[in-house]
Design goal:
This protein has 114 residues and is of the alpha+beta class. The chain contains three helices and five strands, in the order ββααβββα. The protein has a domain of 68 residues: Ubiquitin-like (UB roll) (Roll). Helices cover 20% and strands 28% of the residues. Strands 2-1-5-3-4 form a five-stranded mixed beta sheet, covered by helices on one side.
Length: 114
């Protein structure tokens, strides 16, 4: 018979934000059961609206009233400035077809596509 573990009395939550490239701040918190994303942010001294970041749990966009579970990671990410598909098209247009892609660096004398 499998033994069930009692629910934790406190939740261990990590909060990570990146306000600019290369600048990451992380906090590890112990919060009461039933805590929300907003509770975790206020425990870190962060104002969700003032930061201008997109908030999520484990890389998935979330809301401030989402309930947290033990071991969750609340992440604050900067919104994208450029659509990634558009940026790739622009890079390809700058580099040209011969300088970009999987087969850009071929061995001399190699067959095309190898």
């Amino acid at each position: 018979m499998a033994e069930t573990l009692p629910p934790p009395e406190r939740l261990r939550i990590a909060v990570a934000i990146s306000r600019q490239p290369g600048d990451v701040h992380e906090w590890v918190l112990l919060l009461p059961v039933g805590a929300t994303v907003a509770d975790a942010l206020s425990a870190c001294g962060l104002d969700a609206q003032a930061e201008g970041l997109v908030w999520g749990i484990w890389g998935r966009e979330g809301r401030l009233d989402d309930l947290l579970h033990d071991g969750d990671r609340v992440e604050g990410c900067r919104p994208l400035r450029v659509d990634p598909k558009l940026a790739r098209r622009q890079r390809f247009a700058r580099q040209g077809a011969r300088a970009a892609g999987l087969f850009a660096k071929r061995r001399p004398g190699a067959k095309s596509g190898y």
